[in-house]
Fold Vitamin B12-binding protein.
Amino acid sequence: MMKRLGPILAAMLLIAAAMPAPAEGMKVISFSPALTELIWVLGAGGLQIARSNACDYPAAATALPTAGKFAKPELETVLAMKPDLVVANDLINPGVARILRQNGIRVELRQCRDFDDYLWWVGTLGELLDRRFEAAAEVRRIQEFRAQIARQPRLPGKALWVIWDSPLMVAGSGSFPEMVLRQAGMDNIAADVGQEYFKCSYDWVLKNPPDVIIWSAPGKPDPGHRFWGQLEAVRCDRVVAGLDSDLIQRPGPRLTQGIAELRRKIMEVRERAVEKSEKQEVQK
């Protein structure tokens, strides 16, 4: 375990060497729900003075005023609040970051596509917010989780992750859902498609029938539908639906919970389908 932790902790020390010591009473604004969650996990919620309208967890964070939408700060509002630090995974208008920096506000931007990106944020915020001990504990928790899932057997077959059903949009290669699916132990049937998200034709799905469907759209696919009813995964109810999107599509501290839940649900629908098939055989 210490060998695995070594590179991460070493990276945190390098980050520390490049950063100034945090000022007393630092004021932080987050425009990322995942980063807001991390700030509070690190015990620095008292330093956050505002949030985006998408930052809805933990409950205590919702008492903070909003200073814009997800990845879209309201510039005048932010400047009036005079924060020391603004964090986000990305900004819709990159020019906003330039203006904030010109006004002496530190801006940290980085996408969070996998656990390595998340651990970068843990180390960065741990240093900037003077929460090094809490950050080290979070690093250990993530590394222990990764070691645990690495020991688990891979789940057989391949899954199709449906983001939306009309038009049909699925998760492809390099997407965040694909990473989550892979961590849960199953391969993405659209892994060879060179797009993170793509509009998918019915013909493509029929030519590449999945063993399991992860359904992020509302409801569930109807077995009586002229298309969905052609898929064995739908007819046999090997469909995982109703997952908490905040757990499986938000790259924050609770992602470990979401991955574990997804794996459990996949195993459940597969087992249920086998039991149903066995009962039907007995009744014949």
About this structure: The mean pLDDT is 90. Residues 169 and 198 are 6 Å apart (CA to CA). The chain is about 45% helix and 15% strand. Residues 255-283 form the longest helix (29 residues).
